[in-house]
C-alpha cells in the first residue's frame, strides 16, 4: 500500500493500492483537471524528485519551498515564536524540510489558509506530533481524515504570543489568514492575494478560472481586517510580499475592486 498525491494540486489521499478515481479538489470549479487528465504521484516519488528551498523572509519568518516546483508551487512559512512555532500552509516534501524545522525548535501547530495547500498535512502533523488547525467550514475538503486535524469555528482563533487565526472566507468558506502582531505581519496564502509588484492585493473565488467574488464579500473581508494592525503581507509564493503599508494596500485594493466590479 502507498499514498497517492494529486500532481495538479498536491493533495494527499489515504493509503490505497490504486490511485483514486478523481481528485474532488481539482474537480471543484475553483481548480481544474488538466486537459490531459488527472495524474497521480506517490509520496516516495515526490521525495526522490524534489528538494527543499529555504529562504529567510524576515527575522523569525522563513520561507520553505520546493525545487523543482510541484503542484500549485506555493511555499510554506515557518513562523518562530517563544510559545511555539507554527507552520503556515504546507508542502508535500517532508524529510529534508523536517530536519530544518527541527533545528528551529519543531512545531506546536500547523495552520493552512485553504484546501489547495493541505497537501501532506497529516504527514507533517504526525512527524511533529502537533495539530493541524483548519476552519470547520472547510472540513469537506479534507481528503485524508485524521485525529490530528483540529476543526475550529467562529471568526477568530487565538493561539499564543498574540498569534490569531482570522476566518475571512472568500476564496473558500473557511479561508483563514494568520495575524502576527509581533512581526507586524499578516500571512495570507491566497485569501488575500498579493499581486506582482508588491503594491496591490486582490480577492477571487477562483484564480485559475477567473471567477470573481461579489463586491459585498470583498467589503466584508476588508472590514474584518480593519481592527488588526499589520505593515506587511506575505502571500503564497516567493516574492509575493507587500513590504510596507500593507493595511492601506488592503483598503485601497478593496475599494479598487469594488469600483471595477460595479
> Which class best fits the helix and strand makeup?
alpha+beta
Chain oligomer state: single chain
Based on the coordinates given, report the CATH architecture.
Answer: 4-Layer Sandwich
Largest sheet features: 7 strands, mixed
What is the end-to-end distance?
Answer: 53 Å
Tertiary shape? globular
Give me the side-by-side strand order of the main sheet: 3-4-5-6-7-8-9
Task: Describe the protein's topology.
Blueprint: E1 4-6, H1 24-27, E2 40-42, H2 43-49, E3 51-58, E4 61-67, E5 76-79, E6 86-88, H3 95-103, E7 109-111, H4 121-128, E8 132-135, E9 149-152, E10 156-158, E11 164-167, E12 176-180, E13 185-189, E14 193-194, E15 201-202, E16 204-206, E17 211-212, H5 215-225, E18 232-235, E19 241-242, H6 246-261
What does this structure look like?
The chain is an alpha+beta fold. It has one domain (75-261): 4-Layer Sandwich (Metallo-beta-lactamase, Chain A). 21% of the residues lie in helices and 27% in strands. The chain is built from 6 helices and 19 strands. The chain has helices at 24-27, 43-49, 95-103, 121-128, 215-225, 246-261; strands at 4-6, 40-42, 51-58, 61-67, 76-79, 86-88, 109-111, 132-135, 149-152, 156-158, 164-167, 176-180, 185-189, 193-194, 201-202, 204-206, 211-212, 232-235, 241-242. The strands form 5 sheets. The protein has a 7-stranded mixed sheet with strand order 3-4-5-6-7-8-9. α5 (215-225) runs antiparallel to α6 (246-261). It starts with a strand and ends with a helix. The mean pLDDT is 96.
Amino acid at each position: 500500500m502507498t499514498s497517492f498525491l494529486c500532481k495538479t494540486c498536491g493533495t494527499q489521499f489515504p493509503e490505497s493500492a490504486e490511485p483514486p478515481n478523481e481528485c474532488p479538489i481539482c474537480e471543484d470549479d475553483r481548480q481544474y483537471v488538466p486537459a490531459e487528465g488527472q495524474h497521480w504521484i506517490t509520496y516516495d516519488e515526490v521525495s526522490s524528485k524534489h528538494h527543499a528551498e529555504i529562504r529567510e523572509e524576515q527575522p523569525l519568518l522563513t520561507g520553505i519551498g520546493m525545487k523543482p516546483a510541484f503542484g500549485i508551487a506555493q511555499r510554506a512559512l515557518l513562523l518562530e515564536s517563544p510559545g511555539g512555532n507554527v507552520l503556515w500552509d504546507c508542502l508535500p516534501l517532508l524529510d529534508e524540510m523536517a530536519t530544518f524545522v527541527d533545528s528551529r525548535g519543531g512545531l506546536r501547530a500547523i495552520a493552512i489558509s485553504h484546501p489547495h495547500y493541505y497537501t501532506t498535512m497529516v504527514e507533517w502533523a504526525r512527524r511533529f506530533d502537533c495539530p493541524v488547525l483548519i476552519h470547520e467550514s472547510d472540513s469537506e475538503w479534507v481528503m485524508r481524515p485524521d485525529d490530528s486535524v483540529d476543526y475550529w469555528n467562529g471568526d477568530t482563533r487565538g493561539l499564543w504570543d498574540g498569534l490569531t487565526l482570522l476566518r475571512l472566507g472568500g476564496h473558500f468558506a473557511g479561508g483563514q489568514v494568520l495575524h502576527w502582531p509581533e512581526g507586524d505581519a499578516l500571512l495570507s496564502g491566497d485569501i488575500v492575494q498579493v499581486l506582482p509588484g508588491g503594491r496591490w492585493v486582490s480577492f477571487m473565488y477562483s484564480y485559475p478560472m477567473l471567477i470573481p467574488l461579489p463586491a459585498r464579500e470583498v467589503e466584508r473581508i476588508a472590514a474584518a481586517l480593519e481592527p488588526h494592525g499589520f505593515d506587511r503581507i506575505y502571500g503564497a509564493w516567493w516574492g509575493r510580499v507587500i513590504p510596507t503599508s500593507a493595511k492601506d494596500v488592503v483598503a485601497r485594493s478593496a475599494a479598487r475592486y469594488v469600483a471595477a466590479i460595479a
